[in-house]
Design brief:
The protein has helices at about 65-70, 160-165, 185-195, 195-200, 210-215, and strands at about 10-20, 20-25, 40-45, 45-50, 55, 60-65, 80-85, 105-115, 120-125, 140, 145, 150, 155-160, 180-185. A hairpin with a 2-residue loop joins strand 12 (about 150) and strand 13. By secondary structure, it is of the alpha+beta class. The protein has a 7-stranded antiparallel sheet. Helices cover about 15% and strands about 35% of the residues.
Length: about 220
């Protein structure tokens, strides 16, 4: 688990194809690696990667075809900057929100504009994720815990303050940039709880107004 508070920006040091999947090497910049051991998890652009090798200033991880198919990792190249966060401990301040490091899909930046010292981004999520994105709710973008400032359909808006811009890779975003998205864990589990055993019987495809009334969430 992670908090979505980026601890350092690193760089891709190497990408080695291995029988269809990938061995990824990361140079960790200012990330403190003194307490990192083989088998630990490090979120890299929001993707939970397992450390399988340690060098003096970085680590390597194997990336499966499944991960490559639903994230932006395959589009990186040596030198690409990446957001890094080590897994949280029981003493880690939860400054963001609970993040699993399991990416739900790839979004695309459709607008970037200045707003005083902040920058506002509008991002289009895959249609299947739209129902999990709520105004003033939490979302994880390339590993960064962020608050949704507005949402229309599958597009949502973010207001990024100067500190976040300087401590993450978000300053590099331009219209057309692709980003890893992880929706709020609470939203996903709430949907599953509301659907209950109906989901296992495939009798409904999602949360509907009728279902919410039946379960007592909306008054008849």
């Amino acid at each position: 688990m992670f908090t979505g508070i980026i601890q350092a920006v690193g760089n891709v040091a190497g990408m080695e194809s291995r029988q269809g999947d990938l061995r990824l090497s990361i140079q960790c910049g200012q990330l403190d690696m003194n307490d990192v051991a083989l088998g630990d998890s490090i979120a890299t652009n929001g993707i939970c990667l397992t450390v399988i090798d340690l060098s003096g200033d970085g680590f390597s991880a194997d990336v499966s075809r499944e991960t490559l198919s639903i994230t932006t990792l395959e589009k990186l190249h040596p030198g690409s900057p990446v957001n890094l966060e080590k897994a949280l401990t029981l003493s880690t301040p939860l400054g963001g929100h609970l993040v699993s490091g399991h990416v739900d899909g790839v979004g695309r930046v459709v607008e970037r504009r200045d707003d005083a010292r902040s920058i506002r981004f509008r991002i289009e999520a895959p249609a299947a994720l739209a129902r999990y994105i709520a105004h003033k709710g939490s979302i994880c973008v390339d590993g960064v815990s962020l608050t949704v400032n507005g949402v229309v359909g599958a597009r949502f808006e973010l207001n990024i303050v100067p500190h976040t811009l300087t401590k993450t890779i978000m300053e590099n975003y331009r219209v057309g940039s692709e980003v890893n998205l992880e929706v709020d864990l609470v939203a996903r589990y709430l949907e599953r709880l509301v659907l209950g055993d109906r989901e296992t019987k495939n009798s409904v495809s999602g949360v509907t107004e009728t279902l919410l009334k039946e379960r007592g969430f909306i008054a008849n």
